[in-house]
Amino acid sequence: xxxxTRSLPNMPTEIRKIIRVxxxxxxxxxxxxxxxxxxxxxxxxxxxxxxxxxCQRNPKPCPLIEVMEPGVVEPKITSPGADxxxxxxxxxxFRNGEMVEExxxxxxxxxxxxxxxxxxxxxxxxxxxxxxxxPLWHWEHAKNVAMWRTNIACTPAGAFHGPTVVxxxxxxxxxxxxxxxxxxxxxxxxxxxxxIGNPEAIGIKDITKPDYGDEQPFNPGQVPVFWACxxxxxxxxxxxxxxxxxxxxPGHMFITNMRDADxxxx
Amino acid sequence: xxxxTRSLPNMPTEIRKIIRVxxxxxxxxxxxxxxxxxxxxxxxxxxxxxxxxxCQRNPKPCPLIEVMEPGVVEPKITSPGADxxxxxxxxxxFRNGEMVEExxxxxxxxxxxxxxxxxxxxxxxxxxxxxxxxPLWHWEHAKNVAMWRTNIACTPAGAFHGPTVVxxxxxxxxxxxxxxxxxxxxxxxxxxxxxIGNPEAIGIKDITKPDYGDEQPFNPGQVPVFWACxxxxxxxxxxxxxxxxxxxxPGHMFITNMRDADxxxx
Lengths: 266, 266
Fold this sequence. Notes:
The structure is a homodimer. The first copy, chain A, is an alpha+beta fold. Chain A has 7 helices and 12 strands.
């Protein structure tokens, strides 16, 4: 993955302090290893009930880590002391479904009716796989995973509907069972795979041409394994063209105070 | 538990049809074994976002099985074809926190702004324990479990706050580990225990005097084991005295089309 700054402090609170004052605006992969990183979606209260319902109905692509009351900027449950307006390295601002700005701070855009959603991220289950001895090509080569829109429809909620986006990792057939087991421990970080094997079965025509991210090469014996992806909630929210929406910039996640272990089901 | 009518059909759809026409108005325990039964909370849209948030933050006492859009009466995800206004044997209607009516049908009270919440119920994890050879005294003696308000505060959300209510079952010390394992499989039906052992540690002064339900006798070697209880969401919702709220009448649950196995995490 992109930039690994080994000289950075490794506690979430310290890292967020550096991000807050604008001294770090890069991707967060490999920062604070063992701590949960989160996808960010901010929507006006007007759309928040439907979006919360959408996440509740589609927990695999949209695992809720924390949802904050309208206007609240401190994620008191997962990250006391943090400020959601300044503690991510980079944001994306959308108006009527179009990106209009990519700032490093959103304090100037804050409103009393904004509801913040923090959603689980693949870093958590990927670390569990690596810890279990399952190699991940994109970790070893500082690349992104490969992602596709599938023919698996999300369960709609109010204005929100759309296809499930998946990420794909080549896994050796001898390690697939173990990969299912270790990722199943983290239902709040996408959990178990959605599909193992045949890409066409879920509507993917060309395994060498991802819709997002980087192509993954296959070694002999490796099989494509697909997980629900955190790109889904943003893609779905954008599709409904909300008048106003803020997300993290891809890879520039919110680093919570939670340990991966706090997120484990068992 | 109370009434076991062995002559009733055992499919949820058939049982709900009989309930719908007013031919069965008793408790639902032991009906449709292996199918998920659910607690019911209906609130106006005005309170629904905060209550949804409360459930999201307190998944052990308030496990969401299905939440329906405002005005929708068919639980399309878990129980297509059902009608939430008629398919429970008995309801409770509250105005400003006071019970005003206990009807067998709520069609006359329906409004376009009502949001229905279906929450997991202890029947699911109790069946898992019985299937695993862990005897439950209240199943064998057709009684209720023992329940207490504890000193474990729920995480508040908007107007909703209050203590966690727990249910207690005496478990032999040789079977406690197994009880933790089998109930952990069902996070959407209260999941693993909240506490094992000392009642005082969670604010329970007298294990022989439950706040709700029946006292449970202890055999030699049995230890009190406590689980988060579905009484919590109703108690908490009532505490905030919503202008209008409908719940199931205790024990008179909604029988879904879902199998217990559909609810299992693993």
